[in-house]
Amino acid sequence: MHGDAPEGTGPGAPGRRPRRARSVLFIITALAGLAVVGVLTVAVAGADSRKDVPRKPAAARPFTLAQLGRPGATVSLAGFAGKPVIVNFFASWCAPCKKETPLLAGFYAAHHGQVLVIGVDSNDQSAAALTFVRAEHVSYPVGVDAFPASTATSYGVLGLPQTFFLNARHQIVRHVVGDVTARELAAWAAQLG
Questions:
Q1: pLDDT tens-digit readout, 84-125
Q2: What are the strands, taking DSSP E only, across the chain?
Q3: Considering the entire predicted model, what is its pTM?
Q4: Is 15 within a domain?
């Protein structure tokens, strides 16, 4: 057997394949993560051609999420039964969200009691999200929609931010892709009364 590799060092040696498999798995996972970030970036970049998606009223998907910054508490769409509500999907790492969130926080504070808002922090680090919402003085409830972001997925949200306007029967009557504007929020408040 001269010319053979020393025992335990050849291509089929124990420990060699599992390490290679772990490396391949790591590379595949990293590439999948980059693909997700790429899709989100492209979707958000498309916000320059923002869309206000007209739609026939359709039932909003119910959800219950852990409430950001309040251990043991939850945010549930059912908790707002019989009331119109704005559901805003965002993340602390999202550039357009950094412009939109202070606008929503100010709008909510100015119309508290008349206009209800639920924030859904999607695919984010909880510590970063909590720092972000505190810095922007967000006082409406924020649910944590951690990876794989099943609530965002159930709403068809691929890029951030996105905002859904729900009537009192929790039907989606308006859907804004990209950051919502002060004009859109004012029109919603006027519509409510």
A1: 999 999 999 999 999 999 999 999 999 987 899 999 999 999
A2: 51-53, 58-59, 64-67, 74-76, 85-90, 116-122, 142-145, 162-166, 171-177
A3: 0.74
A4: no
